[in-house]
Amino acid sequence: MAPKGERLVVTVSTTIIAPLEKVWDLFTEPLHIIHWNHASDDWQTSYAESDLRPGGAFLSRMEARDGSEGFDFSGRFTEITPGKSIAYTLDDGRNVDILFRETAGRTLVMESFETEEVNSAELQRNGWQAILDNFRKYVEGYGKREMLHFEITIDNTPENIYRIMLESESYSKWTKPFNPESRFTGSWDKGERILFLGTGTDGKSGGMLCRIRENIPGKFVSIESLREVVDGKEVTSRNGDVWRGALENYTLKPVGSKTLLCVDTDVPAEFRQYIEEAWPRALESLKALCE
User: Are residues 35 and 76 in the same domain?
Assistant: First the structure.
């Protein structure tokens, strides 16, 4: 037990079969953080931002997947040594130190954190360790699906682009590069399910059932793939398996009087060429609609 007036410091760690550079990137990039930053499958990080520099702020919105509860895990970085260490102070005053060490193609990640007083130290240790174990699984599995990045600058406001992008009629227009009869049914509201559909050469409809993981109007949308739909029926095999859990994220950033729209999407290796050909054309179509 820590002396009176001092916080107890707990350390958790994991060793990852991956080079340090890859581990560092996947640990620090917000669009990777939302994939792995949860202690159990019934929780998620729906949104994250990070200004990775001393004095820079960070935030991860951690929530139960059913929306019943949630909180902001936030604070400011106090020290950054790229590829070696991160130190930060949480908004409640607790300090956290993270060390990275590479040996023979494996990377050790070790986190030491000051405990809070509401939950037991053991419960906190288990939670932080579970998140770190999720991170290890994410890194070691990365490559079967890869996050691809696309972006375009549009001469319009984030709010207008957001509205045009998600409206049913305009959505069908700008997503034609993916399928000539591209459409959706359902709601864009956070936590709701939405079905993205197209029509195959055989005349049958098919697509992907998804869940809106996050929706911050004019700023950020995150879509999670659940399962494939073939001829109106949900299936749990075929291509649906490789897409299940994949995220597609839209980020809108004002740049002067214009907006930078970024799309970051998880793509199975066998679909990479198709996605790399379709997304640039889709973004050009959206730009034309918005301008």
Answer: yes
